[in-house]
Each structure stands twice: as C-alpha cells, then as structure tokens.
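1st attempt posting a full record on here, be nice pls
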Amino acid sequence: MTLNHPIDDAEAARLAADFPALDQEVNGHRLAYLDSGATSQKPSAVLDAERDFYEHHNAAVHRGAHTLAALATERFEDARAKVAGFIGADIDEVVWTSGATEALNLIAYGISNASAGLGGEAAKRFAIGAGDVIVTTEGEHHANLIPWQELAARTGATLRVIPILDDATLDMEAAAALITPEVKLVAFTHVSNVSAVINPVSELVALARAADALVVLDACQSVPHMGVNVRELDVDFAAFSGHKMLGPTGIGVLYGRSELLNALPPFLTGGSMITTVTLEKAEYLPAPQRFEAGTQQVAQAIGLAAAIDYLDAVGLDRIHEREAELGARMYRGAAAIPGIRVLGPSEAALRSGVVALDVEGVHAHDVGQYLDDRGIAIRVGHHCAQPLHRRLGVTASTRISPYFYNTTAEIDAVIEALGEVRAYFGLAD
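the predicted structure (as tokens):
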C-alpha cells in the first residue's frame, strides 16, 4: 500500500517506536537522535532479519552444496535483487562492499590496475596517465576526494577541482571550463553531508558526457533520503552505505554499468571471484562476483534488504518531504539566533534536511557537549570534509541531521538549546 499523506509528528513518534535505540534516556533526558547523517538507527525489522539468518540459515554462500548453504545463497542474492530494484539497476550491476569508502576505492584501484596494463583489451578504456585529467569538487567527503588524489599520484594524471561559491553551491561556470576533452572521470557527491547542497546531477553528467568522461556519484546522503534511479541519473558508477539507510554497518553498495564492471580489473583478489586458477595465473568471474573476493557479509546484506523493505513501506517521497520540513524548521530557527551562521544555501529547494552551523566564539565540540548534556545527539567536527570547511572559513561545524523518525519538538529543543549556548559561555550579545 502506498501512503500519500505527509508524515506528521504523531506518525513520526509511532515510527520511532520501531527503533529500540531511540527508546532511552541520555544524561537524564529523553534521547533526541539527530545524527542520522553519520549513521541511522535500526528498526527491529532489520535487527530481526540479521538474527533470523544467524539462527536459522547461517552458512557460507556460493560454496557449499548442503541445504543451509543453498538457502543462505538464495537470501544473499535476493538481497542483491532488492537493492538493484531500489535504485533502478540490474542485479548484475550491484556489487557488495564493506561501505561506500571501499566502493569508491574499488573504482579508483580498478582504474589504477587498468592503467598498469592489467585486465586485457577490455580494460584499456579505463587507462589514464600523464596528460589525462580527473575532476572532483571542493565540496567532497574525503572518501570521494582522497582516492582520486591517490589515483592521480599513481598514474601521473592531473586532478582538477570544481570550486564552490560562498553559499557552498558548485561554481558551474568553472565546472564547464574544467571539464574538457582531457578529462577521463568526473566524481562528485549527490548531496553534501555538510552544506546540505543537492548538486545538479544532470548538468554535471551532461558536461562529462560531452567530454566522454566516466561519472562517479557519491550517493551516501541521497539514497537513504530520496528516490534515486541510477539509470535515470545516467551515472556510470554510484556508491552508498547500508548503515546510513537503516541497515547494518559493514555493508555497502557499488553500482556500475554492467559493461563497465565486466571490463574493470578487480581490486581485491582471492577465493570466490575466480573461474580457473593455475600456479601462473587466474581467470575471473563476471561482475559482480569478480569484485567479491573472500567470505561475504551475508547477514548484513539480508539486513540491508530488510531496511529497504522498511523504507519502501514508509515511502521515500514522504521521507524526503518530512526531512525537508524538519530541515527548513531547523534552518529558520538557527539562522534567527544572533551569533549563529548556517552553512550552505538559504534556498530550500537546493538543500537536503541537514543543517550545519557555526556558533561565533564557541568551538563546535563545546556546542555538541552542551547539547549532549540535554540528551540531544548531533555531530561536530569537519565531518570528513576539511577542504569544504576551509573554503567556508570554519575549522569545524555543528551538524544536525534529522530523519523521518524525528519530531518538530526535537527540532525545537535543538533551537532552544542553541539559543542558550553563547550566553552559557559568556558570549551573549
């Protein structure tokens, strides 16, 4: 059944009851968990799915001939199909990884191997070297910046960075100038984990296509919060993590076009990803198994499938609408407090529900401690995005990242506490 009505506070409270970790007190206050941009809480359905696997179907997948192994393999591959359907991909275009960080490194190291001559004729399409260019942006999480820095260093390619404007949106004029025919790959985030900016994917993809460059999308902050169809976005690769979308830790997803995955040399090698091995060489399975060496994270994949069922039942359109409402409320409340600067654009259409801010004269860690004393869990620091913070003129920020299980009362509690912070530290105007 598809629900069309918006999520209100009453429904958010009912949904929160599905999450055991939310039912507790912290420092004498009812927990208000507003750090879902770092990691989301897990509903009982996900915890039960993992436990059920271990209790009834635990076995190594794609190996044993016994009944438990067959059942485990079936559930493992059913989970892959669930993820594929969730993002509009084919089942052989979904690779299991430990997280988005491994997924992005898998691409970078696969290209590095191709550039070293591995992978045969099919892999030559990925080879890069001196004179070639990789493009990323100033607003990236380190996981979508450092792999490309390292790839450029290994291959002799040049790394170009699309700058951001004062409101943290991308400088698209600069992007058009930087994405030239020498560019082989363009990597960017869909939604910033700091500024909340929703990047113009279609415009960036068009620029990359004109240069005949590959497109890599960091979808960590979009897939859990809005409908994402990789086919419609026309990206070549995309990465996201299970733990940010109600799923377990230790499971991530790499999406790649089938023809690209089958041409890309593998990153990790070992058992389960081969067809034939001699003492001199090995031949590899087709994608996605060619990238899944060793013992797989079966319970985590099954847990992620249960998380997708939960998200589908709530409805991603409703989730996105609810988060936009909470984020706008948080933005308005924080921006109205003297001495607080909210990072990112003011236009709601350009933002996700995340709100990161700087409190004048008070370090983000102190702000976080003040909120934590009131049972409010938020994130402080540079959020693995030091260049972005440096561009915006701050060393760290306080980030509030709601999810659909949060209420307006929790947002208001944060706003109230933020209004007290500067006075508490003797900085009231």
